[in-house]
């Protein structure tokens, strides 16, 4: 059996090699490496796929910062978000002089608990910033209602959720990231749609806001050498756009491969009582950027799997409110017990588009072997 990868970006590349190589050569021949036709073409393709305006940028972190800059916030304004996420979500708030206000997460989904948000809204609150963690949407509909009630911005961190749909109570559905005032995505190589380097995008169905976002991402430019606002330099380069255009053509197939792998894990690990599997919710599909289980024996299990040649990862081992850089916010251990407990118990198993049945069988058999051996020793 071939080596099992946590994320097999090279194996995926080999299935599209001729297309990707040709697309990259087209860019090289054109010598249009920045803001060229390839970038504009990809923006248009992704816009059609999502049904909203797409502004490409350099990475997912920039996408978040640019969106917040477009909201014209002031230092000290408050943003309600989750302490259980990648640091970029909160990092951009600190960089802009905004105040992160944390709400604990739902233990079933790992996403911000929508029911805990309203009590945190103050006269300084300006934005609700949910994270669609691991590929499942946060419960957006109640947040939309809160945003309307209190005149707040709703910004979606959808960097892990391309391919996920939110299912509204009235039966309609929309892609994650396209529901709020703006949404953000990352094309980091391991993402659902991954580049061969950094890349990101911002979404907005508001034409005026989309124009502002595009301007901010390009130095605040209105037209060449005319600057109407303070901006940044955040570009998706043309080679990355070419790669992403090819991969977008295969995206539905890749999404199904992730979902099929998750279904295998669900079926063959459901009998293991000492782990909790990712739960499904009626308001969201799942694109499985990660397949994340929970177990109180995480460290032992991870060591055992490593000995079997099976990689695994902890996303994320430290909650943000307890990180050294964010102590100034004044939070302490125990303030967000669900997030803190998840940081001690979550473990992500291999998840990518090239997992074959023999890989999945070996992984699930190994997980069951670990817990079976533990149970036998207890009986003895």
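^ structure tokens above, recovered residues below v
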């Amino acid at each position: 059996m071939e080596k099992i990868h946590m994320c097999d970006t090279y194996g995926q590349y080999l299935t599209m090699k001729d297309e990707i190589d040709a697309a990259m050569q087209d860019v090289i021949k054109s010598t249009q490496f920045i803001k060229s036709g390839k970038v504009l073409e990809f923006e248009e393709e992704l816009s059609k796929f999502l049904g909203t305006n797409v502004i490409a940028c350099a990475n997912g972190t920039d996408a978040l910062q640019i969106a917040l800059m477009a909201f014209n916030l002031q230092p000290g304004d408050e943003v309600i978000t989750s302490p259980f996420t990648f640091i970029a979500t909160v990092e951009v708030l600190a960089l802009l002089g905004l105040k992160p206000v944390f709400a604990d997460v739902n233990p079933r989904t790992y996403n911000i608990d929508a029911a805990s948000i309203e009590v945190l809204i103050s006269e300084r609150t300006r934005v609700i910033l949910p994270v669609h963690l691991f590929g499942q949407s946060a419960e957006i509909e109640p947040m939309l209602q809160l945003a309307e009630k209190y005149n707040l911005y709703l910004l979606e961190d959808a960097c892990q959720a391309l391919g996920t749909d939110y299912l509204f109570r009235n039966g309609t559905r929309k892609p994650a990231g396209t529901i709020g005032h703006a949404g953000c995505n990352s094309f980091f190589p391991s993402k659902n749609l991954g580049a061969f380097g950094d890349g990101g995008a911002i979404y907005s169905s508001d034409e005026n806001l989309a124009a502002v976002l595009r301007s901010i991402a390009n130095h605040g430019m209105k037209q060449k050498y005319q600057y109407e606002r303070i901006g940044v330099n955040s570009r998706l380069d043309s080679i990355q756009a070419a790669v992403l255009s090819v991969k977008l053509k295969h995206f539905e197939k890749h999404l199904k491969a992730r979902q099929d792998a998750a279904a295998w894990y669900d079926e063959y690990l459901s009998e293991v009582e000492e782990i909790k599997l990712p739960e499904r919710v009626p308001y969201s599909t799942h694109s499985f950027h990660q397949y994340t289980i929970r177990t109180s024996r995480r460290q032992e299990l991870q060591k055992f799997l490593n000995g079997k040649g099976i990689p695994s990862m902890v996303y994320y081992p430290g909650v943000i409110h307890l990180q050294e850089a964010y102590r100034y916010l004044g939070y302490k251990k125990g303030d967000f017990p669900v997030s803190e407990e998840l940081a001690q118990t979550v473990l992500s198993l291999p998840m990518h588009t090239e997992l074959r049945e023999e890989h999945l069988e070996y992984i699930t058999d190994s997980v069951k072997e670990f817990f079976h051996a533990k149970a036998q020793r207890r009986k003895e």
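The chain has a mean pLDDT of 96.
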